[in-house]
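User: I'm preparing a small set of examples for a lab meeting where we compare how different chains pack in three dimensions. I only have the primary sequence for this one, and I'd like the structure in C-alpha cell form so I can line it up with the others. Please keep the answer compact; I'll paste it straight into my notes.
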Amino acid sequence: MDLSQAILQTCDEPLPDLSGRYCHAGLDYELNESLRSLYLCFPFGYGQFAFVGHNFANKQARDLKAEPYFNWLADGRLWPNSGWCETNNFLVQSHDFTIKSISVDAYLSGEPPYTLGAPGPRVKHIEMRQIWEAHSHFIRLLKDGRIVHGGDPILEWSLANVNFDKTSTGALRQIKKPGADSAAPFAAAMRAFAGCIYAE
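Assistant: Understood. Below is the C-alpha cell output for the 200-residue chain.
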C-alpha cells in the first residue's frame, strides 16, 4: 500500500492556529545520524490532527547542496546539523503550546532530556504494536481529510519511502521500500500521533 499520493493531495492546507493547544512529540533518526526528525502532533477541531516537523541533516553524512536538501534548507524546513542539541533544547524551552509527552526510539532512551528525571515533557513508551495500530487510524483520517501538515515536503518525501503490509492482527506495519531513503520523518510523526492516541 503506497500512500504518498494521498498525503500530497489531502494535507497541504495551512496549519490552524496552534497557540494555547497541546501536542505530543515523536523523535526518530537514521542509525548513521544523517537525519534526525522531531514531529509534533496537535489534536484540533473534530477529530483532526496537525503535524509540525523539525528536521536536521548531518552535513557530514549528506550532500546538502544536492536536491532535495538544498531547497529544504533554503525554505527553512531543514537545518544543517545533527539536531542533537537542538531537539533537546526545543523540548525544554517555553512555547505558546504544551508538549505533553514524547515518544522516542529505544536507541534514544538514555539521551537527555529523555531520561525520566530531566525537565521537559514526560517520556512515553509507545509499543510497536501501538504504532502499527496508529497507522491504520492515520490512514482512515487521511482519507477523510482530517490530517493537516501545511505542505510539509519532508514528511511527504519520507512517506513516499515506505509501504505498509498487514500484520496477523490486521494492523499496518511500516516497511521501508527497497533502496529508498529515510523513513525517519514519517516514523517520528507516527510516534507523535500514537502519543495522541495512547498517552492521554
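A couple of notes for your slides: The chain has one domain: 4-198. Confidence is low (pLDDT under 50) at residues 112-118.

User: Perfect, thanks.
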